[in-house]
Design a protein that fits this description.
2 helices, mainly beta, 232 residues, four-stranded antiparallel β-sheet, single chain
Length: 232
Amino acid sequence: GTRLDGQGVANACNGDTIRFRNNIYAGNLTLADTANMGGNGFNAINWLTTPSFSNRVYNVNDSLRLTNPWGFENGGNWVPQANSPALTGASFTDPNLLDPFFTPVTYVGAFGLVNWTIGWAEFNPLNYVIGIQQISSEVPASFSLSQNYPNPFNPNTNIKFSIPRAGFVTLKIYNSLGEEVKTLVSQDLNIGTYKVDFNALNLSSGIYFYRIRVKAEHNFEWAESRKMMLVK
């Protein structure tokens, strides 16, 4: 299933930053507003079933015609049978799908003829960036990189930084050997103060370093590093 929760998610859905297209939902669609998502007029069910999104909804799971829809936990495989709606009705022409993050597929919902996981988006939920948020658009007095908080941490922490000039920003994590273990930020950012939430669930306890580098116009460059401790 799909869970959409929080005002930020609602804003992203309304702003077309989050997209769900050509998906199949079988069984009952349930709306549980746990974070006042409807406060800005957003309704998750209405949004998911927007006709132009080409999502399909079936009242019962059997409508999907899967060979073993309940056996995955025991090593089963969710393979569609003949005439399953998972084998038809999709469009893979959206330019956004050209992003190398995705693996091209010719079927809906990552259903294949051999292994249902073939074609699944190449995303590892461990050791990932939760998100970057601009917390102020005011011009800071200077460039700065704050100490992460909390520190020590396990496994979540956040890092704040301020940039008084727009530019290309990278924020990377290194282990005690100087080896890069994660890139948190690698993008153009406007003037302001930002916070990056980081989840280090897949990292071992120890000392880590995070380093920010900003490149701006006229060959300007600024960098700073700080130390943090992961304790599990």
